[in-house]
Amino acid sequence: MALKNTQSSYGAISRLFHWLVALLVFGLIAAGLYMTRQTPSPDIFKLYGLHKSVGITVLFLAVLRLIWRLANKTPKMLGLDRPWEKYAAHTVHGLMYLCLFLMPLSGWVMSSAAGIPVRVFDLFTLPDLVAAGNETRKLAQTVHEYTAYTLIFLILAHSGAALMHHFVKKDRTLVRMIKGE
Ligand code: HEM
Ligand code: HEM
Question: Residue 156 gets which letter from DSSP?
Fold first, then answer.
């Protein structure tokens, strides 16, 4: 099994990063939307703690993934008949990477500004990114919320495009992200 990407295929490391991050992001979005719509309770606070730990894990994975992407070939996109499709795909991928950084960083700023240091899986505590302050907390909360809605939209467009490649254009875009070849 090839670990690195080639001109035409995603290697195992890129695929692992892609699907692991996708899975964690789905869980984070579901947990985030759920916990902010419940009456506070000890269980909900536990969910907040888990959301923060997993969110910081995504930040860590996003850094590694970006390094791996820059150190690797990116396979040529398939089945792009019109020039705008290539720009659209690149823009959506780029914006998704931006969201993978903006979401955890705004969450971290929000917690720091609320005076609640971020503890990761009860293993270690992150340093505060900003001083406590209500204005900063509100701003970070707004950024976190609207970036989340943007990310949901991008994921829908992105997975819709992947399904379109598979079922309408009948090319190997989706299959090679799952199986490699
Ligand atoms: C990729 C990473 C992350 C994703 C996709 C994500 C997603 C979400 C979503 C969808 C919400 C609900 C937004 C709303 O409807 O108001 C939310 C809320 C929240 N998230 Fe995250 N999150 C991530 C990382 C983090 C991190 C790293 C932290 C803190 C260290 C964090 C702290 C919070 C907090 C405190 C709330 C509640 C905000 C409120 O009370 O309105 N999140 N998150
Ligand atoms: C069911 C959900 C998903 C499906 C079906 C899917 C499918 C795919 C496919 C087929 C590719 C390869 C595109 C190509 O070869 O040109 C790809 C690439 C990519 N996907 Fe997804 N994806 C999903 C979820 C996500 C999520 C949640 C994220 C991030 C938040 C994401 C971020 C990316 C990025 C950045 C790329 C570009 C390649 C890279 O740098 O790894 N995807 N996706």
Answer: H
Q: Burial level of 28, CB count in 10 A (0-12/13-18/19+)?
A: buried
Give 10-47 pLDDT, tens digit per residue: 999 999 999 999 999 999 999 999 999 999 999 999 99
Q: What is the pLDDT of residue 181?
A: 77
The CA distance from 64 to 73, in Å, is: 15
Cβ atoms < 10 Å from Cβ of 128: 16
Which pair of tokens denotes residue 92?
A: 């959506």
Please, what is the Cα angle at 148 between 146 and 150, to 5 degrees? 70
Label residue 80 left, alpha or beta by phi (over 0 means left) and psi (-120 to 50 means alpha).
beta
A 10 A CB-CB count for 140 gives 22
- Alpha-carbon distance of 100 to 89, in angstroms, equals 17
Structure tokens at 86: 């290539």
The residue contributing the CA closest to ligand 2 atom 1 is 159
Is the CB of 55 inside a 6 Å radius of any atom of ligand 1? yes
Find the 107 Cα to ligand 1 centroid distance in Å.
6
Residue 116 CA to ligand 2 centre (angstroms): 33
Token representation of residue 125: 């505590």
CA distance 31 to 45: 12
